[in-house]
Amino acid sequence: MSSESKKDEASGTRGTLFGAGGRFRGGTDPIMERFNESLSFDKRMYDQDLRGSMAYAKALVQSKILTLEEGELMAAGLFQVRDEWNSDRFVEKPGDEDIHTANERRLTEIIGTVGGKLHTGRSRNDQVAMDTRLWTVEHERLILSEMAALLQAGAEHAEKHVDILMAGYTHLQPAQPIRYSHWCMSHMAPLIRDAQRLMELIPRTNVCPLGSGALAGNAFGVDREFLAKELGFEGGVTSNSLDAVCDRDFIVEFLQWSTLMHTHMSQFAEDVIITNLLRGVVIDDAYATGSSLMPQKKNPDALELIRGKAGIALGRATGFTATLKGLPRAYNKDLQEDKQLLFSAVDTARDCIAIMTGVLATMMPQEANLKKALCPEMLATDLADYLVRKQGVPFRDTHHISGAAVRLAEEQNIPLDELTLEQLQSIDARFQADVMEVWDYEMSVERKNVIGGTSRSSVTKQIQDCMAFASKLNVTYGSK
User: Fold this and answer.
1) Per-residue pLDDT reduced to its tens digit, 19-52
2) Which of 2, 200, 269, 474 is most open to solvent, judged by the fewest CB atoms within 10 Å of its CB?
3) Is 5 annotated as catalytic?
4) Distance of CA 10 to the CA centre of its chain
């Protein structure tokens, strides 16, 4: 293909804000235009972008780049642009490469050439860093408010069913009896840690990069601390302009955070899927689907999707970290790939939180079926503990003694609790008549009355602590 033919094909719209009529002679290749644009997804940040421009216009007035009248005109124009976005009246045009160029192009249409002064000393490099930080902080706070509702739903579900007992498992083998509510709270505990971790991300994200320019800083003396305060960046300003425009640690941290949160949700989903299979719980119809062929099917699709999202979350975090590892200072276009991953991660986290909240609020434990899964062998440890309490026998010895009782029951093909006192005494003469009292699931559970244990008082404390934490989250982030 001749160079002339290539030139003819470069018919895409470059736009008038950056490049056309200046450094570049013609338009971009239409494929390049599609490849390069980000407005189709970064317009989600239109409000953050406009708020940044409003603050920057004020800073330009302070720096005498804009007159007071120009600043007021610019503010009015920016408010009009926001109104158009809010009412779905904003018209995207060819050449609107991203949310920054679209907003500035429309501002200039509204107020005229004075709109061209807005970008004085500012780069899209520090602009997009600012937009993304603002958007991320706002959505981290929103997620925390939604996690408060999830934790409250889980605690209320556990509180309502605190008297139900069920089998506890290790290695998917029957282990010891526990309370159903203890099992529920075992899935709230990691979510509390997830919320705590997310709270810790906010201060590192909530730092203002605006005023860093393209890489070297701002040449017009804008007051960066004023910008930070005006935009609500509670952590102040970034410390190095080169780093500020390419720092995406806060996005990596969120993606990694979401990976762990989804891992915990996946574990919950798997547990409920198994318990549902064993008829220990009933999942509400609102969170299940049917089969296209088999009329009887009720599939736990909501939980399966939650489980499936965990692998995708890990892929986002790993993939974007790999993108960052080879980048030189400062901004590079590779960083444009951050937003679709971030937006998708936020949307998925919020969807999964909402679904899990609904599942917990509507799920019904089946007490009779849960009790059926209890078996006397789960009390073998209680049998060992009996001799520790009664006779002061070292546990390592009583472990072997109880194991011998389990083996005898297996050889006799009877449940462990049907061994007679004489049979137990044939194994160890220190067993007394009251040993038969150990075959009580409720008593076994109530002995575990330490902090974090499965006794009624211990689980109640866990429920109360979870509710208190959820209430604190709601107070702090619920109105944000």
Assistant:
1) 555 666 667 788 888 898 999 999 999 999 999 9
2) 2
3) no
4) 43
Looking at this protein, which amino acid is placed at residue 432? Q
Question: For residue 166, which phi and psi values (nearest 5 degrees)?
Answer: -150, 170
From the centroid of its chain, how far is CA 62? 40
Give the torsion through C-alpha atoms of 350, 354, 355, 361, to 10 deg.
160
**Residue among 11, 40, 291, 457 flagged as catalytic:** 291
Choosing from 2, 3, 87, 171, which is the catalytic residue? 171
Q: How far apart are the first and last CA of the chain?
A: 57
Q: How far from 163 is each of 341, 351, 370, 371, 381, CA to CA, in Å?
A: 44, 31, 12, 12, 22
| Residue 364: its H or E element | strand 364-365
- DSSP letters of 150-186? HHHHHHHHHHHTTT-EEEEEETTEEEEEEEHHHHHHH
User: What is the reported pTM?
Assistant: 0.93
Active site residue 399: no
In the three-class reduction of DSSP (H, G, I as helix; E, B as strand; rest coil), residue 365 is classed as strand
The packing angle between helices 249-277 and 338-362, to 10°, is 30
DSSP-H helix ranges across 25-123? 30-36, 39-42, 46-62, 68-86, 99-111
